[in-house]
Amino acid sequence: MEIAVAGGTGIAGTEVVKIAQQRGHRVRVLTRGNGVDVRSGAGLEEALSGADAVIDVLSTSTQSARAATEFFTETSSHLLAAGHRSGVGHHLALSIVGVDRAPHGYYAGKLAQEQTVRSGQVPWTIQRATQFHDFAAQTYRNAAVGPLHLALRMRTQPIAIVEVATRLVDLAEAGPSERARDIAGPQEEQLVDMMRSWAAHTGRSGWMPALSLPGAFGRAIRDGSILPGADADLGTVTFADWLNAQPRG
Ligand SMILES: NC(=O)c1ccc[n+]([C@@H]2O[C@H](COP(=O)([O-])OP(=O)(O)OC[C@H]3O[C@@H](n4cnc5c(N)ncnc54)[C@H](OP(=O)(O)O)[C@@H]3O)[C@@H](O)[C@H]2O)c1
Q: Which amino acid residue places its CA nearest to atom 12 of ligand 1?
């Protein structure tokens, strides 16, 4: 198959590209670094010409609902419109488990993305996944206040990126299936513990006080609202397995 991976240089995208290529698919990587700005649409039509499927693993770093909604609506609209004109038969988007159960700016953007995909003219699949194991490292970097690294109190069931990427390529090969069954890691973790274990494993030092985020989103991530339901498909790689495979600091 000819597969276009929007965001193919990102954390998830790199793995999707690798797995798709290992399976013998021809892959086009759609990123600004490769001359395709999905948000403005520059270079998009050409990049999608002759593609069978698009896997959208784009992201933005904003936490603002307005900015995230604009980003995901514009990028999805452009991918769908150019895909429709180019005869793309399958648009596949990666979303997040619980985006409709926890009020958060970025999640508002992901919900808007899902709605855009559902109402587009290209047959679609939406795959929701839980946080990646790497989320511990991302939060360590993003929640730094001076020498402190705030460790959020959050229940999560993290999954290995390779298992998410494998599922996305499986779905691309299978064809449009609309809302796929959610995927999650094999067991629940506390983000605080994940961050501290990751920091110890990679030789980071510094104080990591546990923080309960105030407000409705803080309550949602503490009360299990973003955990997968009983019908989710579970991966096999635990956070501890993943951490043990990371280089020690
Ligand atoms: N991280 C998690 O725990 C998690 C869990 C579940 C689902 N997800 C979802 O997985 C998806 C991928 O997340 P990620 O963490 O892998 O993202 P990421 O590492 O931040 O990568 C984002 C990618 O998007 C590209 N990009 C951004 N703006 C672009 C534009 N205007 N035009 C073309 N390319 C653009 C970037 O390349 P350039 O900057 O070079 O353009 C990069 O390749 C997201 O939709 C996220 O919601 C993430």
A: 57
Q: 197: Cβ below 6 Å to ligand 1?
A: no
Fold of 2-244: Rossmann fold (3.40.50)
Give the distance (Å) from ligand 1 centre to CA of residue 52: 21
Write the single-letter amino acid at 72. F
Alpha carbon of 56 to ligand 1 centroid (Å): 9
Amino acid at residue number 98: G
Q: Is 95 helix (H, G, I), strand (E, B) or coil?
A: strand
Mean of the pLDDT values across residues 158-187? 98
Predicted confidence at residue 142, as pLDDT, reads 87
| DSSP secondary structure string for all residues of 12-29 | HHHHHHHHHHHTT-EEEE
Give the start-to-end residue ranges of the domains of the chain.
2-244
Supply the pLDDT for residue 205. 81
Tell me the average pLDDT across 214-237: 97
Predicted model pTM:
0.97
Cβ–ligand 1 contact at 59 (below 6 Å): yes
